[in-house]
What does this fold into?
Amino acid sequence: MAKQRVAILGLGIMGSGMASRLLTSNFPVTVYNRNTAKTDPFAKAGAHVADSPRAAAQRSEVIISMVADDQASRDTWLGENGALNGAAPGSTLIESSTLTVPWIQELAAAAAHKSCNFLDAPVTGTKPHAESGELLFLVGGSASALANAQAVLSVLGRDVIHLGSNGSGALMKLINNFMAAVQAASFAEAVALITAGGLDREKAVSILTDGVPGSPMVKRVAARLASGDFSPNFSLRLMAKDLTYAASEGTRHKLDLQTPAAALAVFKEAINQGYGEEDLSAVVKSSRKLSAPQAR
Ligand code: NAP
It folds into this structure.
């Protein structure tokens, strides 16, 4: 059977890895990115470059969006040049960005109005997993929409978990990321106390990473601290976005979630200190000093 024609909308860290993976797996790929300079290497690698999400969607049976946040997703799908305006009835639309549940539900309704299949399919894994087809897809949507997407998702991912109707993938992803961010923020504060208390940092950190606090996330941040390499696989700014979305999801369900709010304060401080474009692990570099007492 001929391979489905796939559009990748958004060539950031994740979208570029996914587009490369599809090209090396011989899928016919069309790419779109707002900043057109990012499309050049994909044109050289054999992708068709579209000048709008709409034009990319017109050429494709499976349309995947991988952009920063709700606003970016809205700009990609809706409007005169949005992908929904170019998608043929019966095509399969996949939103893989990490977004809010209310926006996903609005988008699902707009896709249904156009007689398109729609999945929210955010991912776990980061830059190397996108490039090597080892993402984990957390999927919300109908079983028939998922069946239409399966051939593409199985090239991009090591597994696909179907959680339920539209929005359930998005919700699971926000829960996953707020727990991960809480652990990173907690480790950042532990390192601040290790340093302020004059402990040997290497010894103290290895006690944490070898013991029960040593989750995969804590180990990942500790490794970045040891290497001093904070080049982004997943930007600190986007992890703060996920904490904001998770906190709002708690509020929507009338839950008083404390830990996303606490972690968000730690991440916001790191952004204020200029670390927003670095890897999320740069949260460990931000200073945690109490502000000076107010003058009376
Ligand atoms: P990124 O490298 O910052 O790329 C963001 C992409 O969004 C770029 O293509 C950017 O286009 C586009 N964009 C931003 N605002 C836009 C707008 N208003 N209209 C159209 N396009 C817009 O981000 P990323 O790391 O690839 O992450 C993409 C999504 O995946 C996010 O939702 C993130 O939370 C999620 N995610 C990331 C990781 C990870 O490890 N990096 C893992 C899982 C999930 P320009 O190039 O023109 O700015």
About this structure: The pocket of NAP is lined by residues 10-15, 33-35, 38, 66-68, 71-72, 75-76, 97-98, 123, 126-127, 233-235, 238, 242 (CB under 6 Å). The radius of gyration is 20 Å.
